[in-house]
């Protein structure tokens, strides 16, 4: 793991019976009806130290994922997920096979 976390981001039993990674862990922190438009800096200030599981053995603070996200505000979940996906791929936080094919630039 990247850091010694005081707790597993999935909790004792995992998330809904299974582990959640990256976007799924971040999405659980957002209320789609109330939180959009979502301000990047406010969101990171509130949740930046929270652990995000990248793969089965890597966990990073959420602020590390957002370091390469240039967009300051997101209008909805698809908007946020696209920016996060670009940032995660560009920084090696996307563990899916073939992810490098989807990286067009390093700015999210």
Automatic annotation (TrEMBL):
It comes from Halogranum gelatinilyticum. This is Uncharacterized protein. Pfam families: DUF5785. InterPro entries: DUF5785.
């Amino acid at each position: 793991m990247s850091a010694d976390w005081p707790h597993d981001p999935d909790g004792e039993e995992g998330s809904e019976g299974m582990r959640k990674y990256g976007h799924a862990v971040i999405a659980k922190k957002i209320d789609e009806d109330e939180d959009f438009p979502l301000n990047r800096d406010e969101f990171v200030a509130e949740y930046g130290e929270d652990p995000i599981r990248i793969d089965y053995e890597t966990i990073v603070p959420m602020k590390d994922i957002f370091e390469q996200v240039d967009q300051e505000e997101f209008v909805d979940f698809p908007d946020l997920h696209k920016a996060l996906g670009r940032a995660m791929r560009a920084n090696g936080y996307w563990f899916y096979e073939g992810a490098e094919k989807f990286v067009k630039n390093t700015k999210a």
